[in-house]
Amino acid sequence: DTAVSQTPKYLVTQMGNDKSIKCEQNLGHDTMYWYKQDSKKFLKIMFSYNNKELIINETVPNRFSPKSPDKAHLNLHINSLELGDSAVYFCASSQWHEQYFGPGTRLTVT
Amino acid sequence: AQSVTQPDIHITVSEGASLELRCNYSYGATPYLFWYVQSPGQGLQLLLKYFSGDTLVQGIKGFEAEFKRSQSSFNLRKPSVHWSDAAEYFCAVHGSSNTGKLIFGQGTTLQVKP
Q1: What is the mean pLDDT of residues B89-111?
Q2: Judged by CB atoms within 8 Å, which residues 42-71 of B form the interface with A?
């Protein structure tokens, strides 16, 4: 009964490919997020959706496109992958101010 | 702009010793403050949070933190560290807007010596 789950856990792909990461939460929360953790472990918000509506879109290349089919799911699609996209991507959800994080997806672009 | 600074990138303590991890924030109003822990290869787990009220907050795993408005600090403490506490610790601030965006510090890596 994992609260916030992500798939896949690891993703290795080549430059130029398109890939997706999926996130699901079973907490009944209205808000979901994507964060990126770089090689120095710095965490930065990328996107936030509230009830399927985009409310935060930080300065992220438009190769990244989040999609929320329903409020329990927030997927991240990345086009034309670049070496610099290699990172750990975390999904999170919240109802008020506490955010619950998924286990992360480690993306390696070769 | 909101920001969080964790001055110590890496801290090593002996098992059983006390621990204090520093966190300073920059925010105009009263912030919502958090400490998260990330064990190797894992996601982030919430240790504790401060929203209002008592400035000394208790968290899980024996951790506590004290909010000091005059110093813009929210330092994390534990009286006796266990080897299993070795991890990455992140302080975060959340503004009062409805976006819920968390702004994280750079993280502090805690190493525990036997």
Answers
A1: 86
A2: 42-46, 49, 51
